[in-house]
Sequence to fold (294 residues):
Amino acid sequence: MKTKLSFFMLLLSIAMYSQLAGKKIKTPITAIDNHVYSIGDSLSIGFPSKGEIFQYVGIYKFESGFSTATKVIGVLAGDKVEKNEIVLAKKDLSKLKAKIIHFQDIKNTLFASLEYKDGYRILIQLNEALKSREIISNSKEYNDKFLENTTADINSDKTIIKSFNSDYKLQLVSCIGNKNDQTVTVNLLVSHKLPHQSISFGHYVGDGNNLVYDFSGNFYPLKSVKFGSSSQLGIYNGKLPTNVPINISLTYKQILPEVKELSFLTSNFSFGAFDDYHKENGVLEISNLKIDWK
Fold:
């Protein structure tokens, strides 16, 4: 299955094939975790920072210089061009350990190529993968800072909210954990400057897109939704007045107090004019949520 292009994929699509694109770096490099990495070192792959698909870890078919040269000759002879592809890796690549084959500088961005299988290799955007914990740092100090619930890099501590639609402003109020109930409630304020709107949450209770993930790859189901003063799992025709912030609370269950942070939240919403039956669909995404346990 093809996935939407991330910045990582965009860089690589500029000059395919990847193992020839950009400048290869043979010397050891110092990454954002202040650890010195060399060719032959092993890297451990963590978990996707956004649920099921990695954002900074891809897989590609390796071709030798001879193979590439043969293709070039074939093209000059009129053969059909075959496009090489890099695809974002899926969750089942988690916990894999692989050796670094080489480093590359592509558009001033550092990549590392790792061993894989069946003629394929793994390509990672090294610094971003370390910050998002999609790659486990070889620096004990860097990892310890994460385990202590502090940030090893200033950018990794920033909560990022992507609204289900650009016309709707979403603000994070709190992320509260209840130790007794083993639940976490994410409180948001939603507002807009449009004519009165109607907003609905999700599509059905078991919607697989309404989940939260932690940094260990675990995911947790939705327990309840509160829209304003109304508590229910499906909110139909909930009125959202112009310029009036309304509270939305999403509560997730089966979360133990040992979980200090959530890596990713994704939820479906339907929305549109209050006096119109036509509704659009969108997805709310939130990255990096620290839990305040009570």
Q: What stands out?
A: The chain has four helices and 22 strands. Residues 14-20, 65-83, 150-156, 232-236 have pLDDT under 50 and may be disordered. The chain has two domains: 23-136, 140-293. Helices lie at 7-14, 65-76, 126-131, 140-147.
